[in-house]
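Quick one from the shared queue. A colleague (R.T.) flagged Phosphoribosylglycinamide formyltransferase as missing a structural entry in our internal table.

Convert sequence to structure tokens.
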Amino acid sequence: RSRVVVLLSGTGSLCAALLAAADDPGYPAEVVAVGSDRAGAAGLAHARERGIDTFVQVLGEHPDRAAWDRALAEELTARRPDWVVSAGFMKLLGPAVLSAFPGRVLNTHPALLPAFPGAHAVRDALAAGVTTTGATVHLVDAGLDTGPVLAQRPVPVLPDDDEARLHERIKTVERELLVQTLGDLVVAGLPPTATTTTEESPR
Ligand code: GAR
């Protein structure tokens, strides 16, 4: 099975969905480690309880962002992942991580990208008054939620929605979308055009 390392910053319900899916030996990927930028992330505790290898690299404990990025790349490389999945990881990944795993880093986002990128996608969608938002799984490039989209699923905005309620409904869809998209991807492999990120490319 393909080796996957998950990065998260908080609750980790998306990661939990991957762990649950991978309990089925027929699922083509296994989660070999879970990493975070926050020692107290609930998702880390959940992974530890399940006996999964975990690691933490806190941005503020490094002299600068580049050093943190290199430390994260080293932690990841040590786990020899085929794929890295950013699932509720609330920091932008840097060039060290992205060049270590070209075209092999996925992110999941609670909006229909390119609409509402960034850390407040659900709030921004509500503020914009859209009637449909959703979830996106995409490949990560150097931008903020800008990489090639792999899969999307819509979620209607209901009249009485607040941010928490809408986000929960999106996450229900998002968990399924992530499990399915990652599964499809590791079986099918990537089209060559999606793997063109190299160390030489400008960032
Ligand atoms: C998910 O909706 C994920 O897409 C989002 O955080 C949530 C994490 O949920 N990520 C971002 O907004 C990144 N910009 P979880 O902690 O329950 O898995």
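The radius of gyration is 16 Å.
The longest strand covers residues 29-36.
Added to the table.
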